[in-house]
Amino acid sequence: MELELEAATRRFHLWFRGLRSLRRDLASARWSDDAAAQLPALVGRFVAHLESYCAARAGLDPVWTLSAPWATPAERGAAYWLAGWRPTTLVHLLYTESGRRLEAQLPDLLLGVRSGNLGDLTPAQLAQVDDLQRRTVAEEDALAREMALVQEGHGVVAAPSADGSGLLDVAGLVRTARAVLDRADALRLRTVKRAVEILEPAQAAELLVAAADLEIGFREFGLKHGSGRDG
Which residue ranges run through the membrane (predicted)? Predict the structure, then answer.
């Protein structure tokens, strides 16, 4: 069990270092002369990085996944939903970044000058983002209800006890928890992929940089004010 935890912790730290590196590459490429050539591949690498981490987590003991001992208390307390970031956070971040940029460049937009950034979303894009938000909220709610049942101890009775009350199928509950966590990771990944599909490469790069900044910021805050773990 300790070896599994050490391996999971090491995997998280490697993934997090990769996140920092991809964030730097995306931010640098966004304003380079050959951004149009670089950004699609970098956005794809970012999504693949998240996908590989979700795949690695699928084989982890759900108890470790939920407790996330490699994370800081600040991350677990403020940033985590079912052992990771809440998928709708990405959509809220998209709206926030779009609104901030739109306000800054409104005079140019009124003159017909297009920026191509997140402040320049088309009506069709906004409609798709709204649909993504509604679908994601519904899936989050369903997963939260399922995990609540697990945490309340609802499960199959494995065998009758001496007093006839029955024994809780703990192994079954663990399997159910693992399934819910896997679906939560799948929803996180699906939300990122759909957002990237909706956006142009430059817009997607801006969103992913903002998402990475949010995750990195929570971790740095937790390391400064929490356990002091090396991240």
Answer: none
